Automatic annotation (TrEMBL):
<feature type="binding site">
    <location>
        <position position="9"/>
    </location>
    <ligand>
        <name>S-adenosyl-L-methionine</name>
    </ligand>
</feature>
<protein>
    <recommendedName>
        <fullName>Diphthine synthase</fullName>
        <ecNumber>2.1.1.98</ecNumber>
    </recommendedName>
</protein>
<dbReference type="InterPro" id="IPR014776">
    <property type="entry name" value="4pyrrole_Mease_sub2"/>
</dbReference>
<dbReference type="GO" id="GO:0017183">
    <property type="term" value="P:protein histidyl modification to diphthamide"/>
</dbReference>
<comment type="subunit">
    <text>Homodimer.</text>
</comment>
<dbReference type="GO" id="GO:0004164">
    <property type="term" value="F:diphthine synthase activity"/>
</dbReference>
<dbReference type="InterPro" id="IPR035996">
    <property type="entry name" value="4pyrrol_Methylase_sf"/>
</dbReference>
<feature type="binding site">
    <location>
        <position position="169"/>
    </location>
    <ligand>
        <name>S-adenosyl-L-methionine</name>
    </ligand>
</feature>
<keyword id="KW-0949">S-adenosyl-L-methionine</keyword>
<feature type="binding site">
    <location>
        <begin position="112"/>
        <end position="113"/>
    </location>
    <ligand>
        <name>S-adenosyl-L-methionine</name>
    </ligand>
</feature>
<dbReference type="InterPro" id="IPR000878">
    <property type="entry name" value="4pyrrol_Mease"/>
</dbReference>
<comment type="function">
    <text>S-adenosyl-L-methionine-dependent methyltransferase that catalyzes the trimethylation of the amino group of the modified target histidine residue in translation elongation factor 2 (EF-2), to form an intermediate called diphthine. The three successive methylation reactions represent the second step of diphthamide biosynthesis.</text>
</comment>
<comment type="pathway">
    <text>Protein modification; peptidyl-diphthamide biosynthesis.</text>
</comment>
<feature type="binding site">
    <location>
        <position position="84"/>
    </location>
    <ligand>
        <name>S-adenosyl-L-methionine</name>
    </ligand>
</feature>
<dbReference type="GO" id="GO:0032259">
    <property type="term" value="P:methylation"/>
</dbReference>
<comment type="similarity">
    <text>Belongs to the diphthine synthase family.</text>
</comment>
<dbReference type="InterPro" id="IPR014777">
    <property type="entry name" value="4pyrrole_Mease_sub1"/>
</dbReference>
Amino acid sequence: MLTFIGLGLFDENDISLKGLEAIKNADMVFAEFYTSCLMGSNIERLEELYGKKVNVLSREDVEISPDWLAEAKDKNVVFLTGGDTMVSTTHVDLRLRAKDLGIDTKLIHGASIASAICGLSGLQNYRFGKSSTIPHPYTSSRGVTVISETPYDTIKLNKEHNMHTTVFLDIDKDKGYMTVNQALELLLKVEDKRGEGVMEDAIVVGIARAGSDVPVVKAGYAHTLKDEDLGEPLHILVVPASLHFIEAEALVKLAGAPESILEGLDD
Ligand SMILES: C[S@@+](CC[C@H](N)C(=O)[O-])C[C@H]1O[C@@H](n2cnc3c(N)ncnc32)[C@H](O)[C@@H]1O
């Protein structure tokens, strides 16, 4: 049996009781922390709580050669992921590979950043369109710095359909955790190049350390928020479409957006 377990958002105590029980009953524990991670914890603390060794897998171990899956043919194996195991990950592929090997699978869900951003900001979950990830820029073989324009295009498309955009921020083992500041700087560079007015006068929402006791939620104009310090990672960015009155009120009262965004909206 292979059980996928979402660990929740911030530290070792965010796991569900069901998830914890499944780990305690497991023969082997595997985890990946490249899609998301628990910034308020570490492997030692997880192992102490579980009373088990945690085998941390690389992206290659999970997505290219998941040889460890074979252990689940005759053992109770659990696979841990930050947040919810199937939200903004490709882990359904592992589940399908397990099925092809005749291994039963089960999911134990965890709190996800996808719902936390709605709770923390007051933005309505049903108004979100396609999400995107901003990768760190890279240097091409010709020595040119390449900035992905895909997130900009996604925001543009969502705005055209009056939908909010969640922008996940890159986690890279060498370049580190992308911040809201870096993300906005990159989006504004694309804006300068393309001049399509997608980010001009856009109210954006930056969220840091969701799930901790002191999450930071800040809303403001992109060019202003770019210079605000949201503190330690993880960070995530939301670019709202037009706002309903309650959403705007929440951004003003809960996230410090300027009161001028309420003008002209009906309550
Ligand atoms: C690829 S998504 C994976 C989402 C995860 N499976 C989940 O359900 O929460 C990871 C990205 O979401 C954002 N993120 C995840 N947890 C976060 C948190 N606690 N606070 C702020 N941003 C977070 C970061 O931008 C991070 O790079």
